[in-house]
Each structure stands twice: as C-alpha cells, then as structure tokens.
Amino acid sequence: MSAEAKLRYKLNKKLKIPVGNSKFSNNGRKKADSTLYESEKGKKGNLKPRVTGKKFHAAEEGSQGVLDKREKFNSVNSDRRRKRIYGDQDAAGEAMRYSNSEAPYRKALSRKGQNQVKDGSFDNEKNASRSKLHPRPTWGSNGLQRTAFGTKCFSPTTPKVSNKTKIKDDFVNEKNNSRSPLHHRSIWGSNALENAASETKRFSSKDRSAKQVDNQASALKKHNKFKPDLSNHLDPSRESSPHIYFSNSAKRKLRDKKILDEESHVIDGQPKKRKRIRLDPHDISNKRFDDTIVINESTKEKEKDEEKAEISKNAQFRAIQPSPSILKYVEDNLLGRRRMIELRRAGYNTELSAPLDNIPSSTSSERESIEENIFKNKLTFFAAAKVSSSFPPPDLPEIAFAGRSNVGKSSLLNALTRQWGVVRTSDKPGLTQTINFFNLGSKLSLVDLPGYGFAYAKEEVKDAWVELVKEYVSTRVGLKRVCLLIDTKWGMKPRDHELIDLMERAQTKYQILLTKTDTVFPIDVARRAMQIEERLKANKSLVQPAVMVSSKSGAGIRSLRNGASEDCSSGQSLICSQAVAYF
Ligand SMILES: Nc1nc2c(ncn2[C@@H]2O[C@H](COP(=O)(O)OP(=O)(O)OP(=O)(O)O)[C@@H](O)[C@H]2O)c(=O)[nH]1
Ligand SMILES: [Mg+2]
C-alpha cells in the first residue's frame, strides 16, 4: 500500500463517514462508484478499503486533495462538536449553499431518501428550504441519526446491491454500534452529514461535490419528514422479512412505543376492559342494591309523613287555650318546670325530696288532720299477683295506679306516703311486673299495677301484663278508683284509650293523673290537662278533674291527698274522699 493510500484509509477511518456507494441504487452513480472501487482495488491490490464518498472525492481530486484534507483535518474536528448539536441546521445551510438538483446522489443515509430519489420525486431545493424554515434542533438531529441508522438497518426495500460485502460490513458495523449506542450516534446521522458536507466543501471545489452534499442534506431532511414512518420499519409483522434486522435499541424503542400507545389509550378515557366487581352471594349488603334504595326512600317518605303528623299534632297542642281556672291551679301549685330560686322564694326547702309537698306553714287544720290520719300511716307491702287467681281477698277498699311503663306509678306511691324506698322504682321501663298490694294503715289499700306499652320484656310477657291489668280493673271487687297516670310530656297513647274504654265498659271509676309535670313548661301542663279533659269529657266513669302532680318536685301531691282544691270543680280529690269516707 502506498503512503498516500494508507493516509487516505486512515483518514476515512477516523472520519467514519458511512457514505458510500454500496447501497446506492442509482445506476449511474453505482457505475461511477464501482468504477472507482475497481480502480482503487487495482491500485491497492488485496487491500479492501471501505469505499466511501470521501474516497470517491479523494480519488477524483487526487493526492493533492488528500493532502489538503490532512492539513485541514484538525479544523474539521474542532468544528465537529458544535455541528453535532446544530448538525441538522448546518446540513440545511450547507444544502442551501450547494443546492444543485443535477448533482449525483451520494450514498443515502436512509433507504427512504434513496427511494424518494429513485422515484424522481425528490426535490432538493424544496427540501433544503424546508429544512431552513423548520430547522430541527438537538432532538431533530438525534431523531435523524436514529432514522438514518434504523433505515440503514431495517429497510426491507433495499434494492439489489452490487457489492454484497459492503452490506455485510454494514451489519458488522451495526453490531458494533449496538454495543455502544452513544458512540454510534456520534458517528451516524447529522454528524455524518456535517462531516460529509464539510469534507466536501473543503476537498472539492467542483459543483459536483456540492450537489452531492445538497442531495445528502435533502435526503436527511426527507428522513426527518418521514420520521413517523420509522414505525413501519419497526413493525413486528415485518420481522419475518429476511432483510430486517432488529437491534437491541430498536427492540427497546418498539417496546417503549407500545407502552406509550397503551398509556395514551388509557388516558383517552376509553379503557378497553373494566375491572369486574365480584359480589359475595352471602353478603346481604350487596344484594338488591336498587331495592335498598327504594326501601330507604319509602322509609324516608314515611318518616316525613310522621314528622308532618307530629308537627300537626304539636301545632294542635300549641293551639290549645287552657281555661283560667286550670292556669291558676298550675300557678298556685307551682306546677311545671321551675327554677330552684323560684321555689326558695316561695318558702320551700329545696334540700328535701319533693319539697313542694312539705309545707311547714300549712294552716289548714282539716287538711293536716286528713294527712295525719291517713297518709302518715306506714305503707306496707302485703301481696303480689301475676295472675288473677293470686289476687288477695278484697278486704279493704283499693285505689290502683295504672298507666304506661315508666310513667311514674311506683314513684307516686312513695311520694304520696313520703316513704321513699317502700315501692321499688327504676328508670328502666318494665320494673313492676306484678300487681303489688300495699296497705296504708288498716283501712285502705294502694295497688301498684304493672305498666303497659314499651318495656324491657318479651312481647308475650307484656301481653300477659296487659291482660292481667285489664282483668284487675274490670273484675276486681273492692276497687274504688283507678288513678290512670299519663305522662304530661307525651299525653295519652292508644293503650291508654284501650284501658279507658275497658273501664268505661266495666263502669270502673277512674281519674286522670298527669305525672312528671316538672319536665314541661307550666303552660304546657295546663294545655295537657285541658286537652285530656276536653277529650274525655263525655266519659261517664271519669272522675273530674285531672290531677297534675310531680313526684320529684312534690307539686300537686298535697292536692291529691286532701282533695281540697278550691279551683277544682269537684272540690275534692278522689283519694282523699275515699280516705275520708273510710276514716
Ligand atoms: N322528673 C320526674 N321523674 C319522675 C317522676 N316520677 C317518676 N320519675 C322517674 O321516672 C322513672 C320511672 O319511675 P317509676 O315509678 O319506676 O315508673 P313506673 O310507672 O312504676 O314504671 P314501671 O314499674 O316500669 O311500670 C324513675 O326514674 C323516676 O325517678 C316525676 O314526677 N318527675
Ligand atoms: Mg313501677
């Protein structure tokens, strides 16, 4: 090998410009290249140097061109980095500068470009101007590199290549490059273009070289333009083609593309598959979701109706205008919710239980004598009955206390006798479950009845209580009065009406006692009393008037005992009248 050839070979190797004639399908150029190759081959003997475009130029230019190139080689390298970034733009600039449509085509950096050229639809000037108008910065140059590389590797439309060994070389190069992709990128693509352009500019002053560079630039621009077509080259369906070679980077790129496609598909809001929700067949909450909603709606409607009814009841209750006599009675007996200071100012000792029933300043001798005679006696328990057969013999006149559970029956017995703890009480409804008989002295019996309505007991047991109470109030011999206790806050309930109807049928005398008056305002106590009197005024067995009491505060207890109420129409309390009659 001559020194000149060696130098040329080294130079080419260093520049690593992949332009050559091996894959170029243009017949005219192929001929020229092959001629050159043959001539070089002849010169170099067995040596098989890479045939590149630069060699072509060097061969044409002769040894002088090669020497010039060696002299300017350093400056070319110094410009390379800068041009690497803006390679595409520079290529476009070069292409504009050397634009010539008649120039023979250099070895294209992409098959696409070649095909375009082959078809004759390649317009150098147009592409060059386009590249100038839309220069692609770094990304473009990278894409160009990859496009050029990918096209080189994957192009299935590779025409018949005259020199098969060059294709082999390309594949070998590609393999090596795949090991070091960065290095590979720095070799191929726009850098190759800029190197080629700079080389051409420096070593060839002829128009032909300029035209070649122009064509290269145009081809690269074509690659940029057809960049999306890379997917066609990467299409796995073409994998079966013997000409397609997938490098690792290409496979990676294909995989990334697939992932991106899937993500974009999901982002579009059109996921292909929905997650299936499995319903547990044994889970009641999962069943008949729609029905549940309907039930909820229906229950809500019912609740609304009840609320409306309740509102209307309340409105009706608030519309009641109690009589002045009832209002006066309420005020005189300090019924209703009162403040402690109010009780203290009235002279009551609030330290005592049921303080309103403890009036030390009582002046009525008659009333005191009655209380002394009857209610100062000891209250004693003597019998309890669960069934009617267990009732004690009716030796003494009986006064019974009936009413709903928790209404305060047992508490009232204690309050009347002021003997706390004789009768058991509880805040839980349903404590008293039997008919309890108490003797007050030797002439009167007080009977505590089990309650009805809501209670902490089984339905059958509660039904048995009701039946027992009904039997007692309707058949008990010696029963003089039934005090029917009504909670002042809630008023009368259907069960109360049932018992009233029964007593009316059995002609049992009964009197209404409003309990727990301390839980509501005084005006509401009066309203309730008025409401009940109005409702029951047609009843024959009813003993008027309704008595208002509070076992807690003691209000109305004394009136209940002695029955001497000036404002009450009857003028006498039922209990006291019974007691006076027996004493
Ligand atoms: N604020 C207030 N609470 C009362 C009054 N009378 C009774 N209570 C309370 O009401 C609850 C029930 O009292 P009880 O006497 O056990 O009622 P009951 O009617 O005998 O109930 P049963 O035996 O279940 O039928 C107890 O916690 C009493 O403290 C009252 O006048 N005012
Ligand atoms: Mg009780």
Please describe what this structure looks like.
The protein is of the alpha/beta class. The chain has three domains: 3-228, no CATH class; 284-313; 320-582, P-loop containing nucleotide triphosphate hydrolases (Rossmann fold, 3-Layer(aba) Sandwich). It is built from 24 helices and seven strands. The protein has helices spanning 3-15, 27-44, 53-61, 63-85, 87-97, 111-119, 124-133, 138-154, 164-179, 181-187, 190-203, 207-225, 230-233, 248-267, 289-318, 324-332, 340-345, 365-375, 409-417, 459-475, 494-506, 522-536, 557-562, 574-582, and strands at residues 379-385, 398-403, 435-440, 444-448, 479-487, 510-515, 542-548. Strands 1-3-4-2-5-6-7 form a seven-stranded mixed β-sheet, with helices on both faces. A hairpin with a 3-residue loop joins β3 and β4 (444-448). The longest helix has 30 residues, at 289-318. The radius of gyration is 58 Å and the shape is elongated. Mean pLDDT is 67; it is low at 19-67, 85-206, 226-243, 564-573 and 578-583. The structure holds guanosine-5'-triphosphate (GTP) and magnesium ion (MG). Keywords: GTP-binding, Magnesium, Metal-binding, Nucleotide-binding. It comes from Prunus yedoensis var. nudiflora. Belongs to the TRAFAC class TrmE-Era-EngA-EngB-Septin-like GTPase superfamily. EngB GTPase family. Residues 30-43, 166-177, 199-211, 226-241 have a biased composition (Basic and acidic residues). This is EngB-type G domain-containing protein.
